[in-house]
Amino acid sequence: MADTEEADKHCGKYLCRTGNVANLCRFCMCPTQKSDDPRREDDLKNWKNIRQLLKKKDHDALQAMSQKHLDDNAWYRMRFGQLTDG
């Protein structure tokens, strides 16, 4: 179990939650300015997409989704059940 701050640290998401951050959510790509709409359906963030951006060293794309550049996040190698694609 983790609180919000700890979970954000584990997945490499920005900890800041001001209007200057692109995405408040660690799960989806909802823009901060539109995060007050509960009916929005935005693309989900997933480790495969983030890993591809890390491999390409695309700092701008990572920043656009409020993700830190963590080359070696131990959680990317963990398997959590059958559905986890490693």
Structure overview:
The chain is mainly alpha-helical and 86 residues long. The chain has one domain (4-77). It is 27% helix and 0% strand. The chain has helices at 4-11, 47-55, 59-64. It is globular and about 35 Å long. 7% of the residues are buried.
Overview features:
86 residues; mainly alpha; globular
SSE diagram, text form:
Blueprint lengths: L3 H8 L35 H9 L3 H6 L22
In short:
This protein has helices at residues 4-11, 47-55, 59-64.
**How is the main sheet built?**
none
Percent of residues in β-strands: under 5%
Number of helices: 3
User: Structural class of the secondary structure composition?
Assistant: mainly alpha
